[in-house]
Amino acid sequence: MGRRTEYLKAELENLRAQGLYFVERVRVGPPDNRVVIKGVEYILMCSNNYLGLANHPKIREAAIRAIEEYGVGAGAVRPISGTTDLHIEAEEKIAKFKRREAAILFQSGYVANVGAISALVGDEDAVLSEELNHGSIIDGIRLTKAKRLIYKHLNMEDLEAKLKEAKDSRRRFIITDGVFSMDGDIAPLDKIADLADKYDAIVYVDDAHGEGVLGDHGRGIVDHFKLHDRIDIEMGTLSKAFGVIGGYIASSKEVVEYLKQRARPHLLSSALNPPDVAAIIAAIDLLSSSDEPLKKLWSNARYFQKSLVDRGFNIGNTKTPITPVMIGDEKKTQQLVEMLFNDYHIFVQAVVYPWVPRGTARIRFQPNATHSIEDLNYVIDSLTEAAKKIGVLT
């Protein structure tokens, strides 16, 4: 048993030796400001639960009611018998929240990107992909036979050069993250829109980390730039700021209808389960009615980031609550993470290759709306002390 896969032992040891091996922590309970792991309480600083909605009473209640009325599973793919009135209501509410004509739900943000890109982009088209795009975008593009051109991070001159190179393609798709998840910086969407107008390109933006964080009541990066009539397709996830699970595409009625007919995850993978969809509806209602969680998120993020910079840490070019503490060396980054976990009971994770290029390892801290100032102060003091112990900070 396993003889033919024994070669993987050496591969795993190699990952450990390079500081590229990921250790999964098994927590108990919801992802609030504090979590329990093996009976010990930790301050959680690496959750995408930006607004604390993953454990919000109203959202929990909505999921429970849906289980009682609809059961646990959807029972089929959407086009067969997996569509409920909840799915339609959620799509209508997403479209309204995003100020779009229509929306389609997918099982996750990853699935939304892979499904939508592979369906929309044809063999004779060209894709202009941002250098630091999320892996789900990259995988979606790999499923196409389109011409692929990668433009440098945030570099509009290079994007224009690539657009000129793609001028003879049938269609040009500019695909970019809105917020770059490992750095916290944002795409210059206004400039991208100008280039798209100039070169007749379709703009597709992944708003996974802008959702619930940027714009009016967290409507995202397109709302942040006020570009609703100039950005063609918005992808978003419901597993981060909304605190649930799922992804979506919000766009024109034609785009959404086409995806419902041709996107393979919609056709071939079971629909989102009813309690998840009910929770999505509740999360959108909550965020539409109040921006208090959003205000608390930004207040915490600004305090945390300023304090780190004042202590001498390099947090890169972040423009969002994502707070990368840049280390560089993979092994030292892993050592610092282990020290924070074992000695200070702070739960963070090292971000190393393949998430980021080799030699650019960092710890990605994510302050959220559930953290208290006392939580943040403890993390700041502990990080400072630990970083000095291992020579990361002098």
Give a verbal description of the structure.
It is a single chain. The chain has helices at residues 7-18, 57-70, 78-82, 85-98, 109-120, 135-142, 156-165, 189-199, 221-225, 253-262, 264-268, 274-289, 292-311, 330-344, 373-389; strands at 34-37, 40-44, 102-106, 126-130, 147-151, 172-177, 202-206, 233-237, 247-251, 323-328, 346-347, 350-351, 361-365. It is α/β, with parallel strands linked by helices. The strands form 3 sheets. A 7-stranded mixed sheet has the order 3-9-8-7-6-4-5, with helices on both faces. It has a 3-stranded mixed sheet with strand order 1-2-11. It has a 3-stranded antiparallel sheet with strand order 10-13-12, covered by helices on one side. Strand 7, helix 9 (221-225) and strand 8 form a beta-alpha-beta unit. The longest helix has 20 residues, at 292-311. It is globular. The model has no long low-confidence stretch (mean pLDDT 96).
What is the fold's blueprint, element by element?
Layout: H1 7-18, E1 34-37, E2 40-44, H2 57-70, H3 78-82, H4 85-98, E3 102-106, H5 109-120, E4 126-130, H6 135-142, E5 147-151, H7 156-165, E6 172-177, H8 189-199, E7 202-206, H9 221-225, E8 233-237, E9 247-251, H10 253-262, H11 264-268, H12 274-289, H13 292-311, E10 323-328, H14 330-344, E11 346-347, E12 350-351, E13 361-365, H15 373-389
Parallel strand pairs: 2-11, 4-5, 4-6, 6-7, 7-8
Antiparallel strand pairs: 1-2, 3-9, 8-9, 10-13, 12-13
Helix pairs in contact: 2-12, 4-12, 5-6, 5-10, 7-8, 13-15, 14-15
How do you describe this structure in short?
The protein is of the alpha/beta class.
